[in-house]
Amino acid sequence: MITGTVALPHGITARPVRNGDKNFLAKLFRDNRTDLQAIDATKDFIDMTVDMQLDAQINGYGSTFPNAIYLILEKNGSRIGRVTLDVGPIELRLIDLSFIKKAQNRGYGSAIIQWVMNAAAQTRRPLVVPARRDNSIFVTHLIKAGFQEDTSISDDVIARMVWFPTSDEMNGIGAIKPRKAASGNV
């Protein structure tokens, strides 16, 4: 459990979500749901749909991942994103990672993925990351980092990508770097 602030790469820090973050999280969700913003409907209908999706996400995460860790990402004291992790008995799951528009495409996401990969290796667990199939840049990044798709837990929209740490990585002997995917079962 993370109770304080954790220093991450690129000068980013992570801290647990607080009650005062609710409006930030709602705005972050709305701003990143460009798929919903693009539907041919009235603004009121789009806003209602986005709100329903946000409620469904919050409730779905809570029931599916009751032990999830919800973190706010900050840089220079300003909130720039969020990450949601679940430490399961078998695997570590990156449930969600999102950034404000200003913080996107700066390498922050890659740094967070690397941090979570290190956590998976330290806890001796595979790392599962959901990737939207229409986000080919993200899927390609994960494959280059050594992830492979687990088709048994994927669907038509989301590819569940899995990374297996090597014994050297789990023992802190080898640095985690891009490599060909290791095989195994979650």
TrEMBL record:
Q: Does the keyword Secreted apply?
A: no
Keywords, sorted A to Z: Transferase
Residues of the signal peptide: none
Gene3D superfamilies (alphabetical): 3.40.630.30
Which Gene Ontology terms cover its molecular function?
acyltransferase activity, transferring groups other than amino-acyl groups
Enumerate the PROSITE patterns for this protein.
GNAT (PS51186)
Q: Where is the N-acetyltransferase domain?
A: 12-180
Presence of keyword Transferase: yes
Specify the protein name: GNAT family N-acetyltransferase
Species of origin: Thalassospira marina
